[in-house]
Specification:
Radius of gyration: 17 Å
Mean pLDDT: 91
Structural class: alpha+beta
Helix content: 40-55%
Distance between the termini: 25 Å
Largest sheet: 2 strands, antiparallel
Strand content: 25-35%
Oligomer: single chain
Order of helices and strands: EEEHEEHHE
Number of helices: 3
């Protein structure tokens, strides 16, 4: 299996920058999963989604010991959304000698 990760292209301080997801984005994704499991999960055109406010997300992050300001949370959400992930399953080939 191969995995490719392309960074997010977002505007930061008036400039376009490439940002790879890091620990902050992982923490935000974990908090969103927690909100989804606790009743905020929704179906969005046949895909799993989560209905949340920035305040709810900030409070969930604080509950698990991580404090980010709203701008950091918004940026993390942009990075999560704009990062391109691709996995490819490689077919195993049997050979005989």
């Amino acid at each position: 299996m191969t995995f490719k990760l392309k960074p997010a292209l977002i505007e930061k301080d008036g400039e376009n920058v490439l940002i790879y997801p890091e620990q902050r984005e992982e923490l935000v994704e974990d908090a969103l999963r927690k909100l989804a499991v606790n009743g905020n999960g929704v179906d969005v055109q046949g895909k799993a989604g989560v209905n949340f406010t920035l305040y709810e997300l900030k409070k969930e992050l604080e509950r698990v010991g991580h404090t980010f300001n709203l701008n950091e949370i918004k940026e993390a959400l942009l990075v999560c959304k704009a990062t391109k992930r691709q996995t490819q399953h490689l077919r195993s080939v049997e050979t005989s000698f």
